[in-house]
Specification:
The complex is a heterodimer. Chain A is an alpha/beta fold. Helices cover 36% and strands 26% of the residues of chain A. Classes of the chains: A alpha/beta, B mainly alpha.
Chain lengths: 256, 409
């Protein structure tokens, strides 16, 4: 199980004499269970990527901690990494290589045996319907194919926890559906899935629980029904816009 | 840890050496550039020399006033040259000078007024020769005329001496290197070695740097930009392995480029011979002993590590490859200046140069090519490269652990 506890990340900005601190993530707590897809929703700059980077051990929390079972990111970085499959929103793979080669490369970096890499390649290529382009250079692939490759690479080591930052960003509806189907299947197989997105329609269909993050703070946490009931509305989008747009913009009054 | 570095190294090398464009830039270009450059220079030199020699330049001669009867030997001497001799009047002098500046005519020789009196009184007088130092034909005409007039002076002196009943043997005291034997005691091939020794360290440094930049800036800054560095950092590989793997790949690309430029310059050296003309065994074939090759490798590899580590630390600090390029250019220019300064350093370089990293490697490389490298200097150069590289690698590693730098946007 993934547990985020009182996570705070403060950045320092500006040069000498003009230093200011920015609380990118402020006392955020939530958890995500095996078999569940948790959606971290928020506009750009809300702190989603910073939260996911802290979870994936790329950056260290200023305070608070992140746990996967009994391991935490401050003391067990390597163990956490072995259990996480992380996909960044801005990843552009080196166009010179093929998806097949990249899978071998990242499999080796994860200390996997050749046979194990081969087994995972077969599994992921089949599930993501990549077999037609595994030997083509990444440069020659479409955006959807590249995203499928990035997803496959991040999961080559068969992690228990999947952390994807905006996994459907910029994809056409068909690829987007195949990615969401794939994530649903992963959760069905008992994986813990955490995604960040600002696309409400996808979140509503895909996630079983949500956290709405605005200016580094969790404003809403719970199932879709809990959030809608609390805000007396039938649309997650309205709840979201209620926090993002200027006061009264969405017509939803929030239960504080 | 080393096995992780090797995985990264293999991937980086595959990226570099199976890409045709990279291969051309890193290997083919340094190999063919110098031979191509020097063969063209040698060919152009030959064409230019024969063109100048065959050109009939126009020499204008002003005979001066009151010199009737004295100018004949001057006209005769100048007429024997492959030139058009034109006698001019005083009022034409300015126009002729302008035409020489404008490259329309080549030379103006002005004999002084009444020089016959000085000639008869055995007094020295001055002849003016106006030419254009930026025009090849003019310079050639000036040199030819000067030589011819000096020969005429010798003849006049000889006539004066013999006219006084003195044998012209008195004019000759001794000659220097007048027989046919070989006087230049420089070892066989040493002149070529000296030319190579001056040029090659500079080219090696340039290629080490250029190739490191080509590969190294993309290696970290490019991966940062593409977001792929983050994916590597969330794998089971530690950051030191990533730094070492990337540094080895940058270094290998740099060494391959430098090796290509060495081979290229050795091929190009045959054109030096044709450029310098036939000048005995010192200009003949150049060869390096096994020991020299070993010394060359001992100095060049740590130098490549140093250059690769400089590029890698810039690449690590930069937000993206473009920013990295902007940051590395001043360093590249500084290194080029170091290369040029080492070319001018002379046989014994100043102490500060011999104790400065990069400089001392260049100076030692120069002495290796000239077959007179001392092991003490070699070890100083190697040690300074290793120490500075280690410091830079340590700082790079610190940067890899610094999220402010690694995820700077």
């Amino acid at each position: 199980m993934l547990r985020v506890e009182d996570l705070t990340k403060v950045y320092e900005k500006g040069g000498r004499g003009r230093k200011e601190t920015v609380r990118a993530v402020d006392d955020v707590s939530f958890d995500c269970n095996p078999g569940e897809i948790f959606g971290l929703l928020g506009p750009n700059g809300a702190g989603k990527t910073t939260t996911l980077r802290c979870i994936s051990t790329l950056i260290k929390p200023t305070s608070g901690n992140v746990y996967i079972d009994r391991y935490n990111v401050l003391e067990h970085e390597k163990t956490i990494r072995s259990r996480i499959g992380f996909l960044t929103s801005d990843m552009k793979l080196d166009g010179f290589f093929t998806p097949g080669y990249m899978m071998d490369y990242f499999g080796s970096l994860n200390k996997m045996a050749k046979e194990e890499i081969g087994r995972m390649k077969d599994l992921l290529f089949n599930e993501l319907q990549m077999n037609d382009f595994v030997d083509k250079k990444i440069d020659k692939l479409s955006t959807g194919m590249k995203q499928k490759t990035a997803i496959a690479i991040s999961l080559i080591h068969d992690p228990e926890v999947i952390v994807f930052d905006e996994p459907t960003n910029g994809l056409d509806v068909i690829t987007s559906k195949s990615v969401t189907d794939f994530l649903r299947k992963q959760a069905g197989n008992g994986k813990t899935v955490l995604i960040s997105t600002h696309i409400m329609s996808i979140a509503e269909k895909l996630c079983s629980r949500f956290g709405i993050l605005v200016k580094g703070e969790i404003k809403e946490l719970g199932t879709l029904k809990q959030i809608l009931d609390r805000n007396s509305t039938d649309s997650l989008e309205d709840v979201f816009f209620g926090y993002v747009l200027p006061e009264g913009g969405s017509g939803v009054g929030h239960a504080q | 840890m080393l096995s992780d570095s090797m995985i990264i190294l293999r991937k980086e090398l595959k990226r570099i050496f199976t890409d045709r464009r990279s291969l051309f830039f890193l290997v083919v270009l340094p190999l063919v550039m110098l031979p191509a450059m020097y063969s063209v220079m040698a060919k152009m030199g030959e064409v230019k020399d024969s063109d100048i020699a065959s050109f009939r330049s126009t020499i204008c001669l002003y005979e001066g006033e009151g010199n009737s009867g004295f100018t004949t030997p001057f006209i005769q001497t100048l007429s024997e040259l492959n030139t058009n001799l034109r006698l001019v009047e005083r009022d034409e002098l300015d126009a002729v000078k302008q035409s020489i500046t404008g490259r329309e005519q080549e030379l103006l020789i002005v004999l002084p007024d009444h020089f016959g009196e000085s000639l008869e009184a055995c007094e020295t007088f001055d002849i003016s020769a106006f030419y254009n130092s930026t025009a090849d034909y003019s310079v050639y005409a000036y040199e030819q005329s000067q030589q011819a007039l000096l020969t005429l002076t010798d003849e006049i002196v000889r006539e004066r001496i013999t006219g006084r009943g003195i044998c012209d043997d008195v004019l000759s005291v001794f000659t220097i290197n007048g027989s046919m034997q070989e006087y230049d005691l420089a070892p066989e091939g040493s002149v070529i070695g000296k030319v190579i020794g001056i040029l090659l360290p500079f080219f090696i440094l340039i290629y080490l740097f250029a190739n490191s930049m080509k590969v190294g800036l993309d290696s970290v800054a490019g991966e940062k930009e593409r977001g792929t560095l983050a994916i590597q950092l969330v794998n089971q590989v530690d950051r030191l392995s990533i730094v070492i793997g990337k540094m080895l790949s940058v270094m290998m690309a740099a060494v391959v480029g430098a090796a290509s430029s060495v081979i290229g310059l050795i091929i190009a050296s045959r054109y030096f011979i044709s450029m310098f003309g036939d000048a005995g065994p010192a200009m003949s074939g150049y060869s390096m002993s096994t020991l020299s090759i070993l010394q060359f490798a001992i100095v060049t590899i740590p130098l490549a590590v140093l250059v690769a580590s400089i590029v890698l630390i810039v690449s690590t600090y930069a937000r993206n490859a473009k920013e990295g390029q902007g940051m590395i250019m001043p360093i590249y220019f500084a290194v080029m200046i170091m290369g040029i300064a080492s070319m001018q350093a002379g046989d014994v370089a100043p102490v500060w140069m011999r104790s400065t990293p990069i400089f001392n490697s260049l100076i030692v490389l120069k002495s290796i090519f000239m077959h007179d490298a001392a092991w003490g200097s070699i070890m100083t150069a190697v040690l300074s490269s290793v120490v500075v590289s280690a410091v830079i690698i340590y700082l790079t590693l610190r940067m890899f652990s610094n999220e402010k730098i690694l995820f700077r946007i």
